[in-house]
């Protein structure tokens, strides 16, 4: 786990470039078909393997913006 990358991922979540948003959406599309996607608090969804938030209200957040923390099942790469 790369803590600096997690911090940067949340900065991107708040104010992504168009390119970053597109990549995060593509990753979330994969997560949305994954059995490891799990409901979190409220409108949040998480990955139950790394416990990282992946979407809120169907929008990509956190993990889906990562540059260094890969999907634990290697379904997408950072
Ligand atoms: S990060 Fe990987 S393992 Fe986790 S929900 Fe997304 S696709 Fe599944």
User: Which of globular, elongated, flat, extended, rod-shaped describes the shape?
Assistant: globular
Bound molecules: iron/sulfur cluster
What string, H for helix and E for strand, traces the elements in order? HHEEEE
How far the N terminus sits from the C terminus, by CA atoms, comes to 12 Å
Mean of all residue-level pLDDT scores: 95
Q: Strand sequence of the main sheet, in spatial order?
A: 1-2-3-4
Q: What is the percentage of strand-forming residues?
A: 15-25%
Major sheet summary line: 4 strands, antiparallel
Specify Rg, calculated over alpha carbons: 11 Å
Overall strand count: 4
Instruction: Count helical runs.
Output: 2
Task: Please identify the structural class as seen in this structure.
Answer: alpha+beta
Share of helix, binned: 25-40%
């Amino acid at each position: 786990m790369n803590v600096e990358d997690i911090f940067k991922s949340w900065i991107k979540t708040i104010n992504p470039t168009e390119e970053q948003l597109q990549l995060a959406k593509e990753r979330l599309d994969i997560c949305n078909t994954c059995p490891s996607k799990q409901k979190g608090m409220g409108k949040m969804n998480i990955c139950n393997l790394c416990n990282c938030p992946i979407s809120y209200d169907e929008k990509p957040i956190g993990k889906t913006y990562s540059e260094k923390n890969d999907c634990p099942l290697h379904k997408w790469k950072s």
